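Write out this protein's structure.
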Amino acid sequence: MKDGVLGATNYNGVAANYMSGGGLALFGWITPFTAHVHPLQKVQTQSWNIIYVPYCTGDVHTGNKINLYGDADPAKPITYHHKGFKNGEAPANWMSRYMAKPDHLLVTGFSAGGAGFTGIYGLLRLAVQPKKSALLADSGPLFQVNRTDSPEQSPSVHLHNKIREPWGLDGDDGLAKVFPEIEAAPVGSSATRCSMPSGPRKWPPGWAP
């Protein structure tokens, strides 16, 4: 689906007035966690700093590859810039520099954004190193699957394997290669969601605080 009330893919890019132009998500009509003021609900986090990351490249914040897809008109294939991982990496780097080690961190998302932040929650924790943190997502859960499982053992293994190549998960600058500790783990597994490696931090290039 290219279009929709949420504009989840933003296949022509995010408009310059995205943050000021309004929308269901931005003004908290879907969840009170995305706005400082909500007309119907008051929650503790509305007094916190809020960083809003739009979901826009069709890969639940895990991709890093440009891919070509067929269209109803074969003469007009669609080029998708799957850059969700880089889009998630950028605010994580910024937060590690300017908002490091807060008392609390809440990572939340809805629909595809909820699935996306489930996938990179552990990476955000690693970058920010909060005293306490939590993930709240309204979509999922993402099923944990061992990559060597058969379809009989894990029926969703086909989907896990299908997205790895077109989204570039195993590429040189893909999610699984940048963070080797999750290379053998599926998207959404406990390694991507919750891991906080023990011992000295081994920051990937560009992630040094």
